[in-house]
Each structure stands twice: as structure tokens, then as C-alpha cells.
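Appendix C reproduces, verbatim, an entry submitted by the partner laboratory led by Prof. M.T., so that reviewers can inspect both the input and the predicted structure.
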Amino acid sequence: MKAFAEVLTKMWSEDSTGQGVDMISLKGAIQRFAPCFIGNARQDSQEFLRFQLLGLHEDINEVIEKPDP
């Protein structure tokens, strides 16, 4: 969750206009939990997205004190 939030923050920051975003930290975080994504082999994008969304869903549900909207 933290790696995904970091990527989103960098993507939407005003300093990143026209620059690429480093995805290595996000890829590393995913590889720790899903060894099938280790390396540079092509993976099914639907499988990756499903894994990413499921992980975010599980992390969000573990929050004990939810902030006010």
C-alpha cells in the first residue's frame, strides 16, 4: 500500500510534469508477495491488476482507526 501511495504521489506532484515515475519500489513490493512477478518475464496485465487491487483491499481493511473523510 505504501509503495502504491508513493507512486501515486509522485505521478500527481507538480514537480513530475513530463518526467517518468520510478516504479522499481512498487515492483519490488509486489515481488515480495507474488514471486510469479519476479524478473522481466511478461505477465498477464489482468492478473497483475487483480493482485494489486486485492492487496490494496486487504491493506485498507486492516486499518483500525479510519480518518474522517
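Helices lie at 2-12, 24-33, 45-61. Additional entries are available on request from the coordinating office.
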